[in-house]
Design brief:
Domain Mechanosensitive ion channel MscS C-terminal: 690-772
Oligomer: single chain
Number of strands: 10
Radius of gyration: 45 Å
Transmembrane segments: 203-224, 245-270, 282-303, 323-343, 355-374, 394-419, 425-446, 484-505, 525-549, 570-593
Largest sheet: 5 strands, antiparallel
GO molecular function: mechanosensitive monoatomic ion channel activity
Structural class: alpha+beta
Shape: elongated
Family: Belongs to the MscS (TC 1.A.23) family.
Main location: membrane
Strand order of the largest sheet: 6-5-4-3-7
Strand content: 5-15%
Length: 805
Amino acid sequence: MKFKRVLSLLLLFIFFADGFWAQAEQSKPIAQRLVQWNSEVEKSTGKLENSELDDDELKTLRGKLSEIREKARSAAGEIDLALEPLRDELEALGPEPAEDEPKELASIAEKRKLLNRRIAIMEGQRKEVELLLSLLEKTLKQLSAIRIDRFTQKTFARDVSALAPEIWRKGMADLVDEFIETRQQFNKWQSEKKFSKHLKRTFIYLIGVLFACSLVIWPVSVWLSRKFADVAKERAPTYLDLLRAALIVILVRFLPPMVLALSAYLVLSYGFELGGVSRDSAFFVLAAVLMIALVTAVSRALLSPDSRHMRLMPLGDDAARYIHRIIIALAGVFAIDMILGAWLSGSGASLELTVLRKFVIGLLIAGLLLALVVRRSLWLSSTSEHPIIGGKSLFWKGLCGLIMVLALTIPISAIAGYVSFSRLLATQIILTGGLFILVSVIIALCSEVIDELFNKDAVLGSKVRFNLALTEEGSELLRFWIKVAVKLIVYVTAVLLLLVMWGAGGEDLSDWLYRAFFGFKVGGVTVSIAAIFFAIALFSGVLVLTRLLQNFLEYRVLAKTRIDYGVQHSIRASVGYIGFVLAALFAISTLGIDLGKLAIIAGALSVGIGFGLQNVVNNFVSGLILLAERPIKVGDWVVVGDKQGTIKKINVRATEIQTFDRASVFIPNSDLISNPLLNWTHADKTGRVIVPVGVAYGSDTQKIKDILLQVASAHPAIFKVPSPTVIFKGFGDSSLNFELRAFIEDVGNVVAVNSELCFAIDAAFREHGVEIPFPQQDIHWKDLARLESLVMKIISDKRSGHDNS
């Protein structure tokens, strides 16, 4: 029990040791820490002037200086935090009184003096920290320049030509000597007494591990392959199905050899008690096997040489098989180079043998690369005559030409004596190609996942659309911008990885990214990309949460209440406005913009904004008044001037009204506030229907009244209370005029009810023999005798003219 307690205390001490020492370092006074840091920087600068430092020592020195820089930045933050309350206290005391003003209290003067002294000390320390940071930046740049210069010299250093006879003569002799020495060491190790014991133990362990792995891995691989890999047997696979199947193929193809190789490595290392060079060589053999297995799995997943319908790239069968074999051959060449490098470095290979190895490996890589690009027919789509890379022959020709030039440069540079450059170029071409394939797969996968997220026919896509209340246009727009953001992130990450692969120092790149991401100065303004991204993310996140809250209120809370739909819309719109304002305030605060200074700037610009955006501000305020007073709400039937229809949406600037002809009319909110507005459904939807009726003179008016009341009472949409009424309007020119007036539940149905009442009234009048008159007029002719004589004269004139002819 005592031992367990001691062990527990020891583990706790180890766990908290790092934090304890960091806290102890931070608890030291800043002045003391500055002295210590300056001393360490001076020592590092002195070491840097020593040109005999190797690359590992330079890397260690850089790490130490970077650690001091991080501590100095943290100290600068501490000083800024400590200065802020002191300045607030000094500002609260107000300005120091002038000579002609009454003196302040002695306690206040002493407090002011103390605050000024402390602020001066801390501002001095802040300047010392800035000076130290400036010195560190200068030293780190000098260190980076030294490392870049050494890397350049090493890469472009000219050695003996790879075709020189002494290279081949001495290199082949050294290779034979290495084989002989290795065989002698193996025979010596095999002749030891414990070898047979280790061999028997290792064999038993290996058989057991392989049997256990086969019991677990083989059934899992078969199950995954049958369940997910061949999706085309059930239906036509989508691209997302092919990507999912490709990932399963990679897992199924890579998992068994990975587990078996790791198990064999651990068993051999433990069984034979390998150590030193032997253990390192075994590790590199393991790495080579894993690399071949992974490359083979990825190539088979992407190219699918045995199954056309599962192929991600639109290649023909012969082309897919040929490219697959080339890729496996490249992986094999790299694996051989890895094993040879580990074996020869352990025994201290000569320069000639190293040059010979690099030249042969580079020549093989160049030959395989040329075999990929010289046959243009390989890269033609199986359904067209255009290359699959972007579908643009000009781009493809340029890419093929570049690869051919680089591939030819590999052996030519080695022959010219630039062996290190030749080897670096061969490696980087393959790594760049692998990165290009990885980026393409990631982009395709992300694109398909995003499409699935917004697919209205998919379960997840329909939920996303519903929760975010997205229209078809809004869904397409959001999908587009998410794809743009994802592609930007992937491409930027790929470019950074490419820079690291081609020799850019990881530490230098991280420093540059830190300065670019967390703040760089433009004039006197500090621009932080991290703050900008975080502000955009925070703004978008608050807007998404606001939209989710709006949907929750609309469909989960308000829908279960008896609140009018227009009021529900007003509540939803108010929540949206509040969320937008909060999102904007959070984003502005994240950017470090002082809201007080922003208010001053807004006040200074208020006059210009008032003149330039007067109508916009007026409409915005009017929209808020409409939401608060609610003279109109969504769904109301309104009449504004010569326009009428139902309120569809109350926007920030204008209100959208949908006419009964299904047209949209946008009326500025200020017009709705300042001009007369007729709202048929403000309080409720009840309304009155009026049907004018005219009957012939001589009709029984009481009978007409009874018929109209009977027709109104028989209609189901008309209220019984208040009861319908019939008004005798008066005596017209041709008819006795009546009006049937009744109240209905929904004024929106007034046209339909009016029409139905007209049909019913016409049928009732026909049934009871009531005549509906048409307008009648009597024409009275004056001076008829004179008119008759004129007509006779015209007739006689026509006859006389006819006789003369």
